[in-house]
Input
Amino acid sequence: MDFLIFWLSNVPGFATPFALGVLGMIICERSGVLNLGAEGFVLVGAMSGAGVLISVGDLPLFALVIAGLSGSLFGLLFGFLVTILRVNQVIAGLIMVFLAQGLTSLLSRNMDWVNKPFEGLSKLNTGIFSEIPIIGAIIFQQDLLVYCTLLFYLVAFYFIYRTSIGLRLRAVGENPEAVDAAGGDVILLRLLAVIIGTFFLGLAGGYFTVVVSKIWVDGISGGRGWIIIALVIFARWQLSRALLGAVIFGCIEALIPRVLATGIAVPQYFLHMTPYFATLVVLIYAAIRDPSGQGAPNSLGTPYIREDRK
Output
């Protein structure tokens, strides 16, 4: 029972960066912009959050905001490439990953941020609620961003499915010509979607350093940006399924340190391989369940050129 409680109490913390990242990806790709640069935006956010805490001091919430804004700033470059210059979206996304890997390594070493631990964001003190048997540890002993993530999803659901701007966001990913004919600015809508989406990707990266690891090392995301992309496919660009997928991967990630702590004779590298094996299973499941690939916006990955409108 203790093993189960300790495991489940750590699941929300491990699931939160996946949930934030997938949310950002869905906002971005609902507009028709294919974003394969998630790993890069996560890395930029992770380094920025750590850099604030090391350079400025113990301001974890401020560090998380800066992490998100850093993701948006990096996303502005990506958005400029794919929406205005109409660069191939697959190539542009991969370029952002390699650029982020080099840029974060260069900046962090020049600023002397590597391998320097910091306090980071602690879990909330909910008083008597945290002392409730079983559910107290699981529900009421989490950090602030865990609860904020649920709020983000509620707001995003209302925004995407219940507002006129959300309707335009979905429409621009399905039929940008119709949006243009109705007087909407396709380029502006897509650029705003990229900026907002990459904010959440940067925030996910900030969570890795500010809340989880509380230290910066090169490549700290460890390929989790690619897992986020796989979760978008699993979720079929639906918020409810995205949250479910994040929880599933949170369960897997939270299980690894618990198994290692018990001393069970399981190869360490096998356990660290588990999330990526699960990613492969998720992709296979998504392909078998819906080989047609339905769920993706019709114009995903297709640049919009107004002169080609029919």
The mean pLDDT is 90. The first helix runs from residue 2 to 30. The CA atoms of residues 64 and 144 lie 11 Å apart. The two ends are 63 Å apart (CA to CA).
